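Provenance and format

Records in this collection were gathered into a single text stream. Each protein contributes a sequence line and a token line. The two records reproduced below are adjacent in the stream.
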Amino acid sequence: MLEDVHIPFAEFDDKNEIQTAFAQLSDDLVDNVWGHNGERERNQRVVDAWAKYDQFEKDANVETLTSLQIATAATDVELSENYMSHWKPWHNPSDTGTALIVFHLKDELKVWLSPSADDDESVSLKNALRSTLIDFVDPYSEQASTFEYSVAAHRGEELVSVVSSRELFGRRQLHELEHYIDGGFDEFGTFSGRVKAFGRDLGMMTLPPTRLASTSRGTRVGPFDFCIGTFEQDPVKSTHEAAVHVALREIAERSAGLRVYRDQLRVMPYGRPEVDFFGIEERRTLNAGREFWQHRRVFGRIALSRKLNPNLRDKAGREGFIDNSARRRLRLMIIDLLMRTARQYFGSSSEYREQWLPEIQAANKAAQASESKVRSASLRELMEHIKLHKEPLIDALHKAESLQIEIGRIREKRDVNGFSRLASDVDEMIRAKTLFRPPPKPTRLKKFEPIYREFRDDYNGFIASVEAVSNAWAEACSEFGSLDPLATVQKAMGRDQKLLGDDIGRWTSDIKSGLNREILALEARAEADRAMFYKRALPLLKRVEDAPDTLPKALFEMEAIREDLYREFAEFYLAYSRGLARLAAGIDVDLAISWSADARSDLETRVEQLTALAQLGITVEIIGHEFETLDAQVGRNLRRLPSEVRQSDAFRLAMEAHQALITRLHFLAPLRIAGNQLRESITGADIAEYVSAFFSQQFKDSGTELVVTPAFAETTIVDFRYRIIPVFVNLINNALYWVKFATSRIIMLDFVDNEIVVADSGKGVDPDDVSRLFEIFFTRRVSGRGVGLYLCRANLAASGHTIRYQSGGPSLPGANFLISTKSPVNGN
């Protein structure tokens, strides 16, 4: 009977009593299975009911009985004070709230307890929970909400935040977007609100309904607030700065959505990525430019109240509104507003887009052109520096080495006169450190990279030699300076002061000369610009003199000329003024522009390469899909050739080439992702056998030895074969390329300190390249694509593994890639 089931509850005044109360709750819960705390008749009914259900499960071969699971779950939990410590009412009795603590989690929540749960399925489960709980309280409301919430996972002593009410994209952030609408509908269906398009405030607008509102008490939709905002997806068309645009795209990935709130609490499932209640994406398939709004790229909400909209009622189970006339009416009102505003203000049919977008694009392209000039100037400055100082640097390096030897000689012979003579030479070496230092290096040098690296290595060698000279000189000063220590320090102080003073004087002189030249150029341009309006407007004056009736048109054209010239002049002079203000404020404009230029250049290149990679992926997918059929057709038709042809050497070579190609492609079968795939135990011996066969010809042709240590052979990785095998194929393929430049050609698969090592005897990775080694499209190979190492890291990360680079060990002196798996098993 239902009344036989007891719902455990407890009240206590002192938080120190919680452990006792929790133990009593657990006992009361178990009593619903064991039946020992109630009346005798009730207890017997509980025991008899569970006995029948246990027998039913035993007959069905259920592995663990439900009664046992409930009893175990209730008795096997412990309420730690750590679970309560981040709950505000626990520390402040005047606060109120609710704490929900969940034990014995299902897989959907268990992923939060494992630090290594970052494979595809775990990430999907985490994102689903976040999208459900994020913005649980209306973040766009102007009324301060007293409802605070947070969800946290306890990993032992570690507290992991899942989501909280502090993580929000609210009204202030909405109003910073370049496009937004913010207002509300009245009881008649008329929308009134503020519009901002392309970064410009267009003021208030009013849109009457296109269809009459229902006046029936049971079907009408009452007043509600509405706001929505977004940004241009193409950075060239956006008024947002590049860094802000990148940040907005990241925020949109986790927070975008058009949500529904009732009395400030979210109505589910509206706003989730997979729930497009207002059909935004469906309309975009008809005309993406005209419809403008994107479901996964908008921020906004519909704010209802139960009092003003009683006809919008929820289904059971948080599945949205009941399908009635009010729900359909609400949906049509929002759809109508989205379509009309897209056409009037934002989309491809909007006159504002037609009018303002060219200006925005022109400004952005002008900025890009300026950045391009900065990149070119930086590259030119660097190469001129190298050209000017390359040979003097080599001479200085030899001189520093000789000077170090000479200092050693005079110390050994206690040559005081020689010590005094060397002081000026040491000063010259120290001064040369600044003279030869190369200017900042642009991100991409392309064909000039080898020239730069050679100069950089020579400069680093010179710096090391000068440091050695300085140390030897300091020791010599300690030995010989005992004659007059104070004079020695004073001399060193005067030398350093002079070095700095000379540098400052040279820089100041250069700046003054540059400012004088710039003032003259600015005055010349200003003089020419002042005459520009008169030059362009003079024909209008003559036209009105000849035809007085053209006066209105002439005045209109004259105003247009002034507006055009104002925009042109303001673009130059205001930018000039802002640049000077930033210099005066101590902002390193050169560094900022160089960084922005490099970042934009990287982004542009990456977009181009990603597009090419996507096209390549589609091609491979098509070829792979048709591979078996094409293979059968080629083989069958080759065998149908006349016997005399099949007996020829040409035919034999063609068949051998065909079979070699087929064998090669079949080797890639483990790399296919399509179809049902299972995790399996992949041993190091399996991997070694695969790569040995796959690269057998390359190993033979290049004279490369593949060394597989026993420790690696006995290592086991539990994962998908299609993820793990490509990692080793890519690493071995890279190693084969680089060891060909070495005398001793060895590639080693090893297992050291709980890490899998793929090492080679090549020259290793250049120090400047280590930070970008795993970036997509970064490569130093002549015909490389820059995809292999990126995919290695991506494949490993999908299952929670990591990869890093280490030069000069632990296995071979060249490149060493170390892989940490979630649970490698080593037989030793």
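Adjacent record:
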Amino acid sequence: MAKIRRNRNHTASRLFTDREEFQQTFWNGVHAHLETPIEERLHRVLVFYGVGGIGKTSLQRELTKQLLNARKPTLHARIDFGNLGGISKAKTLITLAHSFKENHQVSFPHFEISYSLYFAKKNPDLTLKNQEIPYLKDIGFVGNLLAAVDGLGFLGALSGVVERAYGMVKRFNLNSELKEDLKRLERLSPDEIEDEMASFFAYDLEYACERDQSVSIIFVDTYEVLWNKTYWNNDVYPDKFMRDIVELMPFALFVVSSREKLKWQSLSMQWQGVLDQHLLGNLSRKDAKGFLRSCGIHDEKTQDRIYISSNGHPFHMDLCVDQYHEMLNKGIAVEAHRFTAVNSEILERFLMHLDHREVEILKLMSIPRWYDAELFEELAAAFMGSRIRNHFEGIQRFSFVENEGNRFFFHALMRENLSHQVEDGSLLKAHGIIFEYYMKRLGRCALASPHDYIESLLSECCYHFKAYAGRSKNWDWLDSEEFIRILQLLQVKGSTNFLISLIADMHACCDNVLNIRIRYILMDMFHLQGNYEDAVKQIGDALKEDHADDVNLQLEIRRLHHQMFYLPVEGIIKEAKRLVANLDGTRYAQHFRELLFMIGGNLGILNGNFDDSRKWLLQAIRQSKKAEDVALLARCLRKYVDMLRRTGHTKFATHACRLGLKLAREEGLRRYEIYLLCTEADLMRETGKLKEAQETIDLALKYAVEQQITGWMGHCYLVLAELAIDTKNDGAEARRFFAEAMGIYEQINQVWGVIQARLGMERVAFMMEEHFLPLRLTAIRDLASNFGYRYETAYINNTLSNGYFGIYRYAFL
């Protein structure tokens, strides 16, 4: 409503009307913040809620316009979740930072470093070419630092970016006290960085407010979209990340528009008194007439008819204004009776005064959730030929068309009403064409493509596929190699929450029939999250279905693999031996080898029964060599190293580790190279090669972060903690590393890791205080004993008997 639209001849100049009470409420909040010292400001969230089309967005735009004209010391930014094209904490923060910079040239140096590290770790294969990284302009000085580096991977170019940035601290206005906090991000996973980057955003924004003695105002539009998204963790409220952001910024005023009241206070008492909520209703007759006069409609009978037909609803009044000017453009006499209708008829009357071809274009473009010039051309060619291509600019004149960059959106009410008027055959055809369009774009995606770009394309592709295939119940695409390839791309990139939600959604729409390979991906996503029990439940559900014997066997093995992270090991060993005893090793050779390795390697070493473990592990090594199963052989050698170390054969362990590393590197098995590097670093530590150990574990951690292998990041922190003790005798640093490891293990519910980190903490306490607490050690021992971890149990018993800690050798899980 509060905007000026271009028309071909006659133009409706819309002036913002009414809402004086709400405008005053807003300015009261601004003045209250301005009159309060920054450090004494309290959280305040101003909420305007009401039905769709009632004018919430127009009110926000009017308020931002007033801010620009008021010459008050304010900084403001705006985000519209309805047009964001993918929602996450990181996307929200970078969008707000860009808005602040565009409106007020606010710089976010600390946040830009954190966001760059996050994006690089999400997209480790991205290369530094401007056409591939269009957001370089959004990351400020970090983009400038990287712009001259061509040909390197983005992640590689960012290596040491914190040190480089602080080397020019005066130029970039960085706070030296935050240097270590930023450097710590280099060791974290993307999800962990995303959790922390809001703190750096809040710091930079508060610094700008203190410098200018101003108040920052953050406008948030279409808040209800957060609750419509389905790719969030089931155990977390979908708007939690926004509440986290608000909580960090008591110095800022938040102005939220939503279709419903916010209910934050029901989630936590901390929000009591923070939310100031106001319902927006229809315009009064007086204000509606004032609005119509501003649009060039002065005849009072026509004004009355429009008001009665629209009931003062801003969206419907906008359509009537569009209708009025279309009539003038066509030389049709404007008569009041032409506007007499109930709300449901307003759209029909508006369309009556458009060219038939333009009506068909509007109906067609209401089918996609958003469109750009390329998609417009695709649909135009399919339905109407080249005749309508020149209409792309023409339809942007209407009040219900919004744009965000090169994306265009119809107002939700208009899109809903128009799409209902499309014939079923045309609707189905359009969904199919749009589906194929996104499939072609997805076909060009590779490891170098940014994860959020792939997610956006796949979301639209699946939306139109469901609409297209749902009629025929033909779900063959979900079994296609191309669909699975895209899922695997996102799996590598760590899009865990997105994949879990998308797979669950597709699972629900296709009568609960999904390709077993897709369900393997889902299980792996649960595993990466540390939701081992959820992965096991998925396997249990799959085992109830009708699958081939080899699939069922693979599922059984996967279930054992997930269970070993949170269940006592002896029962899992018993089940694995039962499976292998009943298995035809010739017919199911790959599964047979996997079970040999699991019993002798993962489970046997974990259990600490090294005589039994050696027997099974040597069989697995022989079978792997015979089958030329290089990946399994590398895994076997790594566990053989663990067994040799724990039985005192350090020299042979070193030789086996080098063989395994050589194999992994020659075959490009980065994942297993990480495992072996971590093991080699701990071997070097044990043999006194501390400098080499430090270099090796640093490399292992770098690779683990790039590959987002969370458990092995924890393992690397264990070795770093031990090296802090051995090289520096620095108990405080060792304690920090053990705490990092503990946080990871607790997050993913890995009992073995929790035991190692707790035991490491006790060794640090003994080193710093020269005593230990038997009760705490006994509790750790009992936990290890209950899970069947004999090595850890025996080590703690010896410590309790001897009164000191002996050499500890890790056998990483």
